[in-house]
Amino acid sequence: MRTVYLDHAATTPLDPRVLNAMMPFLTSSFGNANSIHAAGRAANVAVEEARETIARLIGAQPAEIIFTSGGTESDNAVIKGVIKATGKSHVVTSMVEHHAILHPLQYGRKDGIKTTFLDVKPLGMVTAEQVEAAITEETALVTLMHANNEIGSINPMRQISDVCRKKGVPLHSDTVQSAGKLPLHVDELGLDFLSISAHKIYGPKGVGLLYARAGAPWKPWMEGGSQERKRRGGTLNVPGIVGMAKALELAVADMEQTTAHIAALKKRMVAGLKDRFGDRVAFNGDLEHGIHNIVNFSFPLPDGEALDGEMLLLNLDIEGICCSNGSACSSGAIEPSHVLVALGRVTPTAKSSLRFSLGKDNTEEDVDYTLDKLDAIVRRMRP
Ligand SMILES: *Cc1c(COP(=O)(O)O)cnc(C)c1O
């Protein structure tokens, strides 16, 4: 049976070139990067080379890169570390952030964290004006994602940064979905912090990074050994770090070509959906200006109900098509996606959403096969 993987926003396959780069550090070159002996020094050299590569690719200094276990840790580290450093307790964010941002803020309420969740209707973005209006004397941090993982909307980070600079408030962006897909330069976007995860860019799972601008208010939140200049304890994931640097390097080098390929597939997908379903399909998010790899849509019904997203997903899975309804973290739960609810979608529509997230290895045949199968499934499911 054919397998069509359309869930690249959840995770990506490991690029064979990344595996090759990692291989020595999974086998013969296994030293602890903090050991003094030759094996340790070899690992340390590889880690520092990776740090330099990544720093160069995002316009940072090597010392501003802190390796972590992934996007979730980096997001937690920013929130906890900036609040700790500033002594302030107010955070400005949006309703459509990843749970790695929303949950630390929500659970932090008991510790006195106050959060303003900016409204994103109708397309999933916030404006610099909204951010400016939300900042107070007590604001420790503004954190807004670059590209949304469910609907692909892109925030105007540069304008938001101008406001934050004017008000003297540090700005973090969760750039997990934009890294390797959109130009990501910390000075051009005006970011003080950003989070990247390797497994979303054809790298290994369980490794990521936090960029923390030199001088920005931040304190380590995870104590342990003196690794990462005492900013993040824990033995370094040497193969993971080497793989992440390779993955980002490849993504940036191939960006133009990959973007053109994937954008053409998205165009084909959207045209195909419109063609087959007409006004029975409702697109979620900014179809035109959103990121080039994500298409999110629902099937509302005339009576106010909608086709069940979970059923659509399971039926597509039977045909070998892997996609998602909302974020992977919330599937399994019957809750509608918090992102679609924030767009103002009513519950039945929010529950009927599907997300196709395309990747560099997808083909036109993948898109056409998916459209054919989806068409048949929807015909069966419609009352
Ligand atoms: C996947 C993802 C994360 C979490 O990254 P992990 O490395 O899986 O912890 C955070 N933010 C966004 C936007 C994501 O898509």
**Whole-Å distance between the termini?**
29 Å
Tally of discrete structural domains: 2
What small ligands are held by the chains? pyridoxal-5'-phosphate
Q: What is the H level of CATH, i.e. the homologous superfamily of the largest domain?
A: Type I PLP-dependent aspartate aminotransferase-like (Major domain)
Beta-strand segment tally: 12
What CATH architecture of the largest domain do you see? 3-Layer(aba) Sandwich
Rounded radius of gyration (Å): 21 Å
User: What percentage of amino acids are in beta strands?
Assistant: 5-15%
CATH class of the largest domain: Alpha Beta
Within the CATH hierarchy, at the fold level, what is the topology of the largest domain?
Answer: Aspartate Aminotransferase, domain 2
Class inferred from helices and paired strands = alpha/beta
Helix proportion range = 40-55%
Question: Secondary-structure element sequence?
Answer: EHHEHEHEHEHEHEEHHHEEHEHHEH
Structural shape: globular
Figure out the total of helices.
14
Query: Biggest β-sheet: count, sense, barrel?
Result: 7 strands, mixed
- Uncertain runs: none
Strand order of the largest sheet: 2-8-7-6-5-3-4
| pLDDT averaged over residues | 95
